[in-house]
Amino acid sequence: KSFLLLWESFVVMPYQYNRRFIRQFSTVFSWDDDLVDNDKVIKICYPVRKPFVKGLPFHQRKLSCMLAANKMFNSPHQLYSERQKIIRFYDTHVQRFDLYGRGWDNLKLKCYKGNAPFKSETLQKYRFNFCLENNAFNKGYISEKIFDAFQAGAIPIYKGPPNTSKYIPSNCYIDYNKYGSLEKLDRFIQDFTEADYNRYISNIRKYLTSKMSDQFSSDGFVKIMVPKILEKLGKKKL
């Protein structure tokens, strides 16, 4: 018996999603809703849920940030170029945006603040965090990015899979696609009041302790994978 865990997105490791490659395995675990058939391909979510940590109060937080390495993949579905678009826009509005991550050192960006070795501590200083997945094409691809923001009380400005709201209530994040331009989105977050912010944070905290978020917990991950592996191996327990 052989098992495959499809972990990385199609953009990063496309060969793993070749049907011929997948057929070699008796059971496949994947986040990809378009592959899942609940027979050979079993649905799993990344075990990335984290408890909420109270950071700085609203009035002490800076406006927005992004934590991302400077990478690029040659795929029509990648969002790395969209991240660069955001960075270029805010490099002329540096008072409202800070960039962290590896690989930006030589670009002489005004908004660049270096690496952020402790994500949560960094994110706790901001009201909003630009969270763009590596791709927004595959249904069900939700990584740690949005949960890192949730944990730190930085409202995610999120661009993820087309069915994000199936997994996370839409009142927990700002939909990046909704505003049509960075100018409009920038104005929207500038106009955000403390009451607006607190409402989103309340929604986030409720979600993180809800059954809906259990699928992103470590326990939820194990409860799906272990029984299925034991079943395929003909065992009742480890």
From TrEMBL:
Keywords: Glycosyltransferase, Transferase. Residues 76-212 form the Fucosyltransferase C-terminal domain. PANTHER family: ALPHA- 1,3 -FUCOSYLTRANSFERASE, ALPHA-(1,3)-FUCOSYLTRANSFERASE 10. GO terms for cellular component: membrane. InterPro entries: Glyco_tran_10_C, Glyco_trans_10, GT10-like_C_sf. It comes from the Bacteria. Belongs to the glycosyltransferase 10 family. Gene3D superfamilies: Glycosyl transferase family 10, C-terminal domain. The keyword Transferase applies. The keyword Glycosyltransferase applies. It comes from Aerophobetes bacterium. Pfam families: Glyco_transf_10. GO terms for molecular function: alpha-(1->3)-fucosyltransferase activity. This is Fucosyltransferase C-terminal domain-containing protein.
